[in-house]
Give the backbone structure.
Amino acid sequence: MQGEPSPNDERPTLKTIAYLTGLGVTTVSRALKDGPEIGEDTKQRVRLIAQQIGYRPNRAGVRLRTGKTNVISLILNTHEEGYGFISAMVYGISEALSSTPYHLVVTPHSLSDPMEPVRYIVETKSADGIIISRTEPNDPRVRYMQSQGFPFATHGRTEIERPHAFYDYDNAEFAKEAIRHLVSRGRKKIALLGPPNALYYHKHTVSGFLEGLKQAGLSAVVFDDVDSDRPMADIKAFGEKLGHSDDRPDGIVASSAMAAIALISGLEDSGRKVGQDFDIVAKQSTMPLNWYRKEIITIDEDFREAGRYLAQSVLAVINGAEPASLQHLAKPRGA
Amino acid sequence: MQGEPSPNDERPTLKTIAYLTGLGVTTVSRALKDGPEIGEDTKQRVRLIAQQIGYRPNRAGVRLRTGKTNVISLILNTHEEGYGFISAMVYGISEALSSTPYHLVVTPHSLSDPMEPVRYIVETKSADGIIISRTEPNDPRVRYMQSQGFPFATHGRTEIERPHAFYDYDNAEFAKEAIRHLVSRGRKKIALLGPPNALYYHKHTVSGFLEGLKQAGLSAVVFDDVDSDRPMADIKAFGEKLGHSDDRPDGIVASSAMAAIALISGLEDSGRKVGQDFDIVAKQSTMPLNWYRKEIITIDEDFREAGRYLAQSVLAVINGAEPASLQHLAKPRGA
DNA sequence: TTCACCATCTGTATCGTTACAGATTTTTCC
DNA sequence: GGAAAAATCTGTAACGATACAGATGGTGAA
């Protein structure tokens, strides 16, 4: 026992507790993590004192010794600005982490190199787990983290054979459901304002869309010039052009609320009215879309739940769970 | 989640560089931080090798030794969900931090105890600086951080004498400008849907509002039952009730875009039309409000800029700058 | 009695970094 | 030439935690 008298203005460490209890530092450490080689009464005593003096393990110490950071990193690209669902994700994740020792670090990156933050985190081990979004079918970030054995969960699926934890929204089902709504209102010429090509949920959305049309005996119109990720001003301009075109659709499926608003805005500028000249079905997450135009048909997507699920999944993976068992496909909920 | 064995060896440390250069670990450390007692050619050599092998300082090591975390903590309360401006703030902060070694940690808290996360971070020194929002006139968090000499910056001012870094939006000016717009459209009975009482910007908004009315020779109507922070459904309900009331206003100033949408939504349910029965001026941040109703009069607020400024300010405070010189009052920009 | 064995507890080394107090060499100046 | 000063460089000891290999003492079996 090499304990010095402890000055009590400093933050307590294991040494402080060791001094107060007359035990060794090692014993205190083991006691606090409920190690098997420590007597029950000793554990009680240590826990009591630790609680009384408000001991909190020094994260730098733990991290240096064990490599454990107690950090989950959420990687976001700056593109997503303005869409507001990030807040919901962040809160969902925070919620799930609040009862754990984990912290949430938000790591942004520009579109130029999506791999860079992932590589940085893995190489420097600056987090125990990663959450990424906007997955591509053959996402290099997923491949990389798998090859490195690094725990992660993705918002969105991939085509990669080896299973990984994910939370995804059933966009095929969304598209089919959307078409059902439009068909039931007598719409015949249905178009899709879908996600950008590169992202995997583009495929799900399109395949659901095509299947839905087939079931309804209709043929397809997919907007090629524009996707739901484009700047709102572009989508609006596209909408206006579309409204003036002769073979404009009378039904629209929109993969994002903001894109829907922008598109409607443009269509209205060309004199078309939602609910009359056309109907539109859109995903709704944060803001109630019906307050914008009550004629919009909405289908809910819950990003807070996504955040919660993703956080819990990464933690599970970190604790050795099988990624294959941590996959969730959320069913659209009509609103 | 097991992967392939990691391809190359261990992560390089100072020891690695010391071995490669034949220098001592201390020398390498000093060289990399450009210490004065190291020869110029040695520095060059060390830097070169460090760069070649991709050396990155181990943050846990630095933190344990120096106490420096290289972390800025943004404290958010879960209430703010759905308002979407958080994304903008987060990106603004990230942008400012991207060229520095600092990371952004998002620390949420429930409304129950706003002090808890602040105390935790200060006590455990788990960040080098803190950013808080939604300040009260005599904000206990500010008092606490000041008393502890902890670097921070606030989104919003306080009444506290001792200066601290802040970024605030000139809500008094906003209200006055808003009234000018309304008066110029012949509105005579103007009401305010302002922020909650407890927050300091409530006072600024109200005083600007009252002054604006006085200049226009009008008298005031302030909604007492509702504020811009309330759930949107409540605001909408209030709007509907208001629309049916006999002494309803013909001009409205709204402190938040979402609140404005909710209120309009309610007023419309009671048969009132914006631009006809009433005009409304609202703050606009992420989404273009005119796409919702083109008659809304908007005044811009830039949260991304706020985030940037706040991040730069905390860093400056950390580096010893005078908080009094890090105060910014953003002027409203009419849109 | 002896000794293996278990239950508890402890000291030492270590993670990567930097502060500090030397150590060594070179330069300067008389 | 020699001593003091300056310029470089180095080893050791922390920071707080944990892995590991011993200690210590008590128990029960032979």
